[in-house]
Design goal:
Length: 96
């Protein structure tokens, strides 16, 4: 999935986890209650089952990632939550 600069998902969670592999650019991710993390090509991010989080591009950089999501007959792939506010996103560390 490709995110243009500043684009990001809504807050969401995956009942059976999600793994994100960054392949290009510079991205950001955040787990509910945690700091915003900078992610770069080669980084692997594991979001545990039902861990609320978001991910997307840095404000001035695009980001491309491959996401692997688990599901089965008893679990949806994703539960979408509220949008990430500009205030929440503005807390990102500076990215070069």
């Amino acid at each position: 999935m490709r995110f243009m600069p500043g684009a990001r998902t809504h807050w969401h969670r995956h009942p059976l986890s999600q793994t994100v592999f960054v392949t290009e650019g510079v991205g950001l991710c955040r787990r509910r209650g945690g700091p915003i993390e900078v992610i770069r090509p080669g980084d692997r991010v594991l979001f545990e089952a039902d861990e609320e989080h978001w991910h997307g591009a840095a404000p001035n950089r695009l980001m491309v990632h491959l996401a692997i999501n688990e599901s089965d007959a008893d679990h949806d792939v994703v539960h979408w939550l509220t949008p990430v506010t500009e205030e929440e996103y503005a807390g990102a560390p500076a990215v070069d």
